[in-house]
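User: structure tokens for this one?
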Amino acid sequence: MELHFSEEVLEARERGGALVALETSVVAQGLPYPKNLEAARACEEAVRRAGATPAATAVIGGQIHVGLSAESLRRLAEPDRPKLKVGSRDLAVAVARGADGGTTVSATCEIAAAAGIQVFATGGLGGVHRGYEEHLDVSQDLGAIARFPVAVVCAGAKSVLDLPRTLELLETLGVPVLGLGTHDFPAFYARSSGLELEHALADVDEAARVVHARLKTLGQGGLVLALPPPAAEAMGADEVERLIVLALDGARREGIHGKAVTPYLLSRLAELSGGRTLAANVGLLVHNARYAGALAVRLQGQG
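Assistant:
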């Protein structure tokens, strides 16, 4: 894979510094402007303050970038510019067409692995969509995490998904889902889903040992590190569920489907909650980035 590294990422690679991959679909499609740009910058700064270097991934003019300039980040964020939502399956099309695109979890995992980056911070995973019985809708994210050797720090899976089935499929794919300080699988906006995780990691040092064992010692695929969202911004699970039911009903009425579903639901939830879900989303993104930065630094000491 031909990659184009920013100067900051190149310098970190040359000195053997810790790197954290960041996805950009949240910038291109997930959050409204200018909140998307503010959140992206805050995530990068959180990684830097933890002692690591941020490496946001994207397709810019048909080239795969690892680390973005301020101009490229703004190019993805501005609402009047055309850009694709790029998963792993879409990378070839985006490159061949010379397009701009924000990378999802699946594409970011693939690019991070190609760049030798072990840690990736995102908001929430994609997964098995609700209504799976009627329409087979499963995110590329899950297969990509199983395939590519990257530790994904997230606030669980997006609340709008079928969380029990998402966890079941991750187990089927052989992907460990490890709670960071909790045995309760986080539910994105909410700290608790009520779904029990078999393993919880006490601190970032233990997380680094587990990541090193899986990725380096054993040479296995990726893993999920589930970090509850900050208590200050988190919402109650019952309230979130009530809002999701309303948003899903709206999506059905308007005929929203496929890739458009998640961005629609996130936008609708922000409206229904008076902006509280948006604040929770930004809060957990920065929280995850900060943890991922600390984890990447610890991994440097694992050899």
